[in-house]
Amino acid sequence: MAQRTITKILILVVLIAIGIALQLAGLLDAEKILAIAREFSQHWWLVPVLILLQGILFSFALAGSLFLWVAAPLYPPAMATFILSAGATLGGLGAYLLSRRLSDDWVGKIEKSRTYHLLREQDNFFTLFAMRVFPGFPHSLINYSSGILRVNLGHFISAAILGVSIKSYLYASVIHGATRTESLESLLDLSTIGPLILLSVLSLLGVLVNYRRALKQK
């Protein structure tokens, strides 16, 4: 048991070290990746490569979201949305399975606690969707928390696909055909993030209503 724990800690340390090394080496720079991707934008295989790279980064809690600034300038909003949602979902599933595996011992110690069961009771599509669609909410936090808490995989995947698709389409529509500076300013505009915040709030209100109804039934 002790050997397994040490092994898991070492894996986490290695993953953190890889992330730091990539960042220091400048390999997680969106401008550099975009410059390279432009050279191969006419090739069909660039799409699966971009999806795969996102999946790898998200799986290990790295900056997969930077591919928004790669896919959106290169492709029309619909194609960029497909690339971003596919990559985020693939990486989310990888992070879910990885965190679930690495947290076996930890979950066994807390699964009888009231807090754990409360979080499990809120395991539903709307909670996950609200977090996915909310502007700036970190995907890695959702992915790893979901794996640790063993949330329903169907809810997890469907919320990832729908939430990321909606958010990616809005962002990609703003960025496509614009300069990076103009796009960034537009991304922070209320007309862009307002609908995302509204969707998130409405989803959370639905969760609250269902939770109170369940309490009354008890």
Describe this structure in words.
The protein is mainly alpha-helical and 218 residues long. It has one domain (31-217). Helix content is 80%, strand content 0%. The protein contains twelve helices and no strands. 31% of the residues are buried. Residues 180-184 have low confidence and may be disordered.
Give the tally of structural domains. Answer: 1
Quaternary state of the chains: single chain
The average pLDDT value, as a whole number, equals 75
- Helix share bin: over 70%
Topology:
Elements lengths: L1 H23 L5 H10 L6 H14 L8 H7 L2 H26 L1 H7 L3 H8 L3 H9 L5 H11 L3 H23 L4 H8 L2 H28 L1
Helix pairs in contact: 2-4, 3-5, 4-5, 4-10, 5-9, 5-10, 8-10, 8-12
Top keywords for this entry?
mainly alpha; 12 helices
Short synopsis of the structure:
Helices cover 80% and strands 0% of the residues. The chain contains twelve helices and no strands.
